[in-house]
Structures are given as structure tokens and as C-alpha cells.
Amino acid sequence: MGPARRKFCSIAQLRTELVRVFGFDECRGSTSGPCGSAATRAFWTFRGKAQPCPTSCCWKRLWTTPPGSWATSPPDQYGQPTPCEGFDVQALANHLVAGNPYYVILAQGGGPDLSLFARDQIGDEQPGNVYARGAKEVLAAWQSEGALERHMPLPGAGLGPRIADLHLMEAALHGWDLPTATGQDRAGDPDAVRAATQIWYGNYPDEIRVPTGMFGPSRPVLDDAPALDRLAAYFGRAV
After folding, report:
1. Do residues 108 and 144 lie in contact, with contact meaning Cβ atoms separated by under 8 Å?
2. How many whole angstroms from its chain centre is CA 178?
3. Nearest alpha carbon to residue 28 among 165, 191, 155
4. For residue 21, which of 151, 160, 122 has the smallest C-alpha distance?
5. 115: DSSP letter
6. Lesser CB count within 10 Å: N end or C end of the chain?
């Protein structure tokens, strides 16, 4: 057995770990040099390849419709495990719902509030109803001027991944996890899946995923498997 892998389910949790692994915070506010904004932006656009932002209609379909039918899953399914290790259906649904207010804050230029993920966001309501309310708010936030161009700031200096790209991938991937756990349709919206695949597939290097433990190694998948199945396998899910 190899060393224990640290487990990160939330994209948001990766930022601090990347700083620990790669030492970005050693730049101490520098805007030039190896960890300055130009260098980190080049890294996070995957070696200089500019990645397109999804269109507004793609965002709208992704967030105004809860992925799959997990949003109406009966309570007796809440304790079922999901492909996101350590999260059952209820915990991951709460995590996905909490992502909406989390990304509203980031889209508006605020700082990360990880406490949102520790709170019960659903209560006695149907997850889909809570998700739908938050989806309207996050959609409006992403449609505000400059929101899609914001990058995650790295502590100390430089810019990390584009926040919109993180949200897109997290919503798409967890939108596969939950329907998979509940035995429902997991194909996802074709345009949203296509956008997430174009931005992330083949572009997330092993030197990031292995040290952080956020995702396991890519897994085999049939060439003719649905697009979201292939993306899930790329990020270490067993398809």
C-alpha cells in the first residue's frame, strides 16, 4: 500500500492544498517572477491554451435544472454512498446546494466562505427546491459584468483557476455522482458536459491530482461511453 491519500471532494478545498504543495504563497505579494500573475495564469490556462467560458445559455441549463432526478430522491436514499468518497446522497446534495451561495460570493469578487458547506442547507425541504432558488441567484451572479473572467486568488500572490471553470466542473461532476448513487439518469446537459470536457478533460496534470489526493488516477472507460461518464472516469470515478 502506498501513502494515504488526502481526500478532497470540494473544488474549493483544493486551493489551500495547492499552495501547500507548490509553494505559491512564497511569492509574498510579488506580481512578477515564477509565482506572479503571468506565470500562474499560464499554468492555470493549461500551459498557455486559453479556455473558452461557457455561454450564458449553457450556464442557465446547468443551474436551473438540478442534475438528474436526485433532487426528488426519497429520504430512504439519503444514506446511500456516492462515487464521491466519504459523501452519502444527503451530504453530497447538501454540498452541491451550498455551492450556489458559495459561488455567488466568488462571482461577485468576495472571498471563499467554506463554512457554507458545513451548514445544513436543505433542512426539511426537497433538495431540488432549495437548489432551484440558489440556481437563480448564482446564474444572476455569473451574468454580472466581469464575473466569468474572475480567477481564484492564490494566497500570497498570483491567480489560480478561473472560478467559473471550477464551478462548471464541480456542478457537472457532482451532477454525475448523485444520479449514479440513486440509480437515475446521469447523462447531464449535453452543452454543459461538452463545455466542462473541453476545459478540463486531458488538462488536469498528475502532478496536481496525485499530491493533493483530490482526484484519483484516471480510470478506464469505453470509447463510446456517454460524455459525462468519460469525464467522470477521467477524474477517478469508477464507471
Report:
1. yes
2. 14
3. 155
4. 160
5. G
6. N
| CB contact at 8 A, 154 and 19 | yes
Q: Are 232 and 196 in contact (CB under 8 A)?
A: no
- Residue with cell string 466568488: 106
The DSSP symbol for 81 reads B
pLDDT of residue 194: 86
pLDDT confidence band for 59 (50 / 70 / 90): low
**Can you tell me the distance from the alpha carbon of 141 to that of 156, in angstroms, rounded to the nearest whole number?**
26
**Which H/E stretch holds residue 102?**
helix 89-107
CA pair distance 102, 114, nearest whole angstrom: 8
C-alpha cell at 229: 461518464
Q: pLDDT, tens digit, for every residue of 91-130?
A: 999 999 999 999 999 999 888 899 999 999 999 888 888 8
Name the one residue in this structure whose C-alpha cell is 432526478. Answer: 69
Provide the terminal-to-terminal Cα distance of the chain, rounded to the nearest Å. Answer: 23
Residue with cell 476545459: 199
Higher pLDDT, 79 or 217: 79
150 phi/psi in degrees, rounded to 5: -70, 140
pLDDT of residue 41: 39
